[in-house]
Design brief:
Blueprint: E1 2-5, E2 11-14, E3 19-22, E4 43-45, H1 51-54, E5 67-70, H2 72-82, E6 87-89, E7 95-98, E8 101-107, E9 124-129, E10 134-137, H3 147-153, E11 158-162, H4 171-181, E12 185-189, H5 201-210, E13 222-225
Parallel strand pairs: 3-4, 4-5, 5-6, 10-11, 11-12
Antiparallel strand pairs: 1-2, 1-13, 2-3, 7-8, 8-9, 9-10
Helix pairs in contact: 3-4
């Protein structure tokens, strides 16, 4: 299984048979040179409606476009605005079974509104169970005590979590989250996109290592094997 990180909170997981794209943000993303038109995901998962997670959803809509998975408000908006019919609602606490495994929508302690300011539903994270590996994308969040339940319910191989602080949890919060989830590997996201979420990656690496966790920093527009 491979993960490609496009910067900010946009990444893609390829299993060999299926491709999942998370939080499409390309055109205004300073970390990527990828044209979304060159990607061909089978599924697009949107954690919430903020522009830096939703802005390039339209690039994947159309008659033969991928299944869009998100909360009811977001998939309704996608259908209404772009006429995209291949959508699946998934609200917090719900699970759907798909060809590759399952996706559960988890709580995320954050806010959510569309770029025009309208209500974007409740933000969420996703636990993706591929059968042989489990990936937990926290979405934009602060740590919350129910993360302990996620760690109890799943043997999480990879936790993908924000570390940029200010509008999400920072390094200390992400370490606290990891203490509850107990993943084998952590991949940091949501940093160095805007001045107020700039971090020193050496400090991030050292902090996680000092806390006893394995952290892998993925270069922008790079692919790694999980």
């Amino acid at each position: 299984m491979d993960l490609t990180y496009f910067g900010h909170a946009t990444f893609q997981i390829e299993t060999g048979d299926h491709t999942l794209l998370f939080d499409p943000f390309f055109q205004d993303n300073p970390h990527t040179n990828v044209d979304p038109a060159t990607l061909d995901p089978d599924f697009v998962l949107v954690s919430h409606a903020h522009f830096d997670h939703y802005a390039d959803v339209e690039a994947f809509t159309g008659e033969d476009g991928p299944m869009m998975i998100s909360n009811f408000e977001i998939i309704s908006r996608i259908g209404n605005d772009y006429g995209h019919e291949n959508v699946h609602p998934l609200n917090e606490g719900g699970t759907i079974d798909l060809d590759f495994g399952s996706v559960e929508a988890t709580h995320a302690r954050h806010t959510s509104s569309f770029p025009d300011g309208s209500y974007g539903g409740v933000p969420e994270g996703f636990v993706v169970d591929f059968g042989d590996q489990t990936v937990y994308y926290t979405g934009d969040t602060a740590p919350f005590v129910e993360m302990e339940w996620i760690g109890e319910a799943y043997d999480v191989d990879v936790m993908i979590a924000p570390v940029g602080d200010v509008v999400t949890m920072g390094v200390d919060g992400a370490i606290h989250a990891a203490e509850m989830v107990e993943p084998d590997l952590i991949i940091p996201v949501h940093y160095n996109t805007f001045p107020f979420i700039e971090v020193d990656l050496d400090d991030v690496q050292d902090s996680f290592e000092d806390a006893g966790f394995d952290l892998q920093i993925v270069d922008f527009d790079s692919k790694v094997s999980l």
